[in-house]
Amino acid sequence: MASYSSSKALAILALALAFCVQGSIGGGIECENLNKDSCAFAVSSSSKRCVLEKTVKRSGEETYTCRTSEIEADKLKDWIENDQCIKACGLDRTVLGISSDSLLESQFTHKLCSTQCYDNCPNIVDLYFNLAAGEGVFLPKFCEAQGANARRGMAEIKSSGHVAPGPESEGDHPVKFMTAPPTMAPY
């Protein structure tokens, strides 16, 4: 009986100590403390996204540093993306920065819009939702259009579709142009 109460007291003491230590060192994620293998797609305790940067020294040696970006994650903080989401969404942990250009790649968008990614990886979906919005594309509609209308959706991303009109005369109206979609192999 004494051993049960001693182990219980020891467990409570260890738990209390863990809370004290966590409180004294902040207990949250700081991008600058993350390594190359956990930086990309992480979110700090201040809700800022982490970004991986590469530096090449004069000797040719490459070093990687994780930095805090100015981009805020919507309703997320203290988040390191799990390997299942990285794989399901077709991403690479060692990516150096991201851009909306990846939304033009059919293999990537197919994975991003898959049930495994879209329904289970809120951090990644939030990130690409904001990237798509910056291009004037609503990601849920874009994903819905995958398949039959995927080429059209990608063409809309590639071009805003608006061209400034030339000098106006009677009967002239602004013209809306679309770029031709890239040729893609059938699924």
TrEMBL record:
Show the Pfam families listed in the entry: PAR1 (PF06521)
Any signal peptide, and if so, which residues? 1-26
Region described as Disordered: 159-187
Q: Which keywords appear in this protein's UniProt record, sorted alphabetically? A: Signal
InterPro entries, per database record: PAR1 (IPR009489)
Question: Record's PANTHER family?
Answer: PAR1 PROTEIN (PTHR33649)
**What name does this protein carry?**
PAR1 protein
Record organism? Camellia sinensis var. sinensis
